């Protein structure tokens, strides 16, 4: 496209000026403003269009919440049909909620029962509370760089470089010290770092929560022995193992990453792509744990006016039904992801750029650091400015990548081989240009 991306004579710029007066930082979620006043007015399949009519091939995909493509009729048609039927009653259960739970428990190997929430954060908050109730213990172990939502229990990150992630550790002010102190941080792909915490705090750790692939720092694919070792360790120590599959769930495989790695967590959380852009989250696990949410027999509060609401449940059912009926979604997105990763790897190798391509399935990340990248410590070598330049130049050419370094890009069910060809061509130009500068 030949538009001037830095122009201030645009509708996008004007909207951001208006937003800055009314919304803190001009956005409703802190990571939506990263250096450039994006303002989109629509989308179609793999593409989004900004308010000024510029079209972008979308790899941001709403942080992965778009799985099949934008405004997909696969999901939107049933949602449209549901409007004006079952709205909200606040009493009893709807057929949709039971249908959704059927699909989730059939798809997810470790799931016997589920609860529906409105977001991923609510699902992880419930998972942590349930684990504490079930064990009678207070401490939570998370991994460096793992993100599990905006709430207090998971707000510790121990970031070594302030410009990374959300730029702070803890992620927010306003959290009680003793709550922060109850969260311990281990190193991903380093079982000894977890073992050391269990030794330091015997019988005090309620749960270990992990993104099975920490996509919030790109794509650290776990070593098989690491995941297996964690399963064994948490089991032996009487702690709950939580897989936060908010990103990996339904995206990498219908049964989540647990199906890929063949290791079963106790609890699994979902959100994002599960309903292709409609808000919903979920927590699933064995009956023995989940029954604590039972309002008659249990002791953990399950509440939420909108939990399991019609449009989110309808969208999730439609998404899961589509994935079940079309397993080629996985072969296609995995093949496209692999083509992008292989293509980028050849380009940076040929150009002699110090970079490492990572990812899994349809997800890819480009780290500007020499490999191997196994854990968070390796990521500290990333050249964030190089990534920012790459992102900026790709976006100017109409390829919308995630703006933050150390995050990831997503192929949806609507991306094509031709889209990938054009992406690699553009990436070659951009990286050659960066090398020349
Ligand atoms: N867990 C993971 C792994 C996530 O990536 C996110 C969102 N980035 C969340 C939980 C929180 O989900 P939500 O934004 O829907 O509250």
TrEMBL record:
Keyword flag Transferase: yes
The keyword Transferase is assigned to this record: yes
InterPro entries: Aminotrans_3, Aminotrans_3_PPA_site, PyrdxlP-dep_Trfase, PyrdxlP-dep_Trfase_major, PyrdxlP-dep_Trfase_small
Keywords linked to the UniProt accession: Aminotransferase, Pyridoxal phosphate, Transferase
One family name in Pfam for this protein: Aminotran_3
Required cofactor(s): pyridoxal 5'-phosphate
Domain of life assignment: Bacteria
Entry's Gene Ontology molecular function annotations: pyridoxal phosphate binding; transaminase activity
Family from the record: Belongs to the class-III pyridoxal-phosphate-dependent aminotransferase family.
The name this protein goes by in its record: Aspartate aminotransferase family protein
């Amino acid at each position: 496209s030949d538009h001037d991306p830095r122009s201030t004579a645009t509708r996008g710029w004007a909207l951001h000026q208006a937003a800055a007066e009314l919304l803190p930082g001009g956005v409703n979620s802190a990571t939506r403003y990263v250096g450039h006043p994006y303002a989109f007015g629509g989308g179609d399949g793999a593409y989004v269009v900004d308010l000024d009519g510029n079209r972008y091939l979308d790899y941001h995909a709403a942080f992965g919440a778009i799985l099949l493509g934008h405004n997909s009729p696969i999901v939107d048609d049933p949602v449209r049909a549901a409007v004006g039927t079952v709205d909200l009653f606040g009493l009893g259960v709807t057929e949709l909620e039971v249908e959704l739970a059927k699909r989730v428990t059939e798809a997810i190997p470790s799931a016997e029962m589920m609860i529906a929430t409105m977001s991923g954060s609510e699902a992880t908050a419930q998972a942590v509370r349930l684990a504490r109730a079930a064990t009678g213990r207070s401490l939570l172990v998370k991994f460096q760089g793992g993100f599990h939502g905006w709430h207090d229990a998971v707000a510790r990150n121990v970031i070594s470089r302030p410009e990374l992630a959300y730029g702070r550790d803890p992620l927010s002010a306003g959290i009680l010290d003793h709550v922060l102190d109850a969260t311990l941080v281990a190193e991903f792909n380093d079982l000894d770092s977890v073992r050391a915490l269990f030794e330091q705090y015997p019988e005090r750790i309620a749960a270990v929560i992990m993104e099975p692939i920490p996509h919030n720092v790109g794509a650290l694919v776990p070593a098989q022995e690491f995941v297996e070792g964690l399963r064994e360790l948490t089991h032996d120590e009487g702690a709950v193992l939580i897989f936060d599959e908010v990103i990996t769930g339904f995206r990498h495989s219908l049964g989540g990453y647990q199906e890929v790695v063949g290791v079963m967590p106790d609890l699994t959380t979902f959100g994002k792509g599960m309903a292709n852009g409609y808000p919903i989250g979920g927590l699933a696990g064995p009956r023995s744990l989940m029954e604590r949410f039972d309002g008659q027999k249990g002791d953990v509060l399950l509440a939420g006016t909108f939990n399991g609401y019609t449009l989110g449940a309808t969208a999730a059912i439609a998404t899961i039904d589509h994935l079940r009926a079309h397993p080629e979604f996985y072969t296609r997105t995995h093949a496209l992801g692999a083509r992008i990763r292989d293509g980028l790897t050849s380009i940076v190798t040929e150009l002699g750029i110090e970079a490492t391509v990572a990812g899994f399935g349809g997800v890819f990340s480009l780290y500007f650091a020499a490999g191997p990248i196994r854990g968070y410590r390796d990521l500290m070598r990333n050249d964030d400015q190089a990534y920012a330049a790459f992102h900026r130049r790709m976006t100017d050419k109409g390829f919308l990548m995630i703006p933050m370094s150390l995050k990831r890009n997503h192929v949806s069910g609507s991306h094509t081989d031709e889209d990938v060809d054009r992406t690699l061509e553009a990436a070659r130009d951009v990286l050659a240009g960066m090398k020349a500068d």
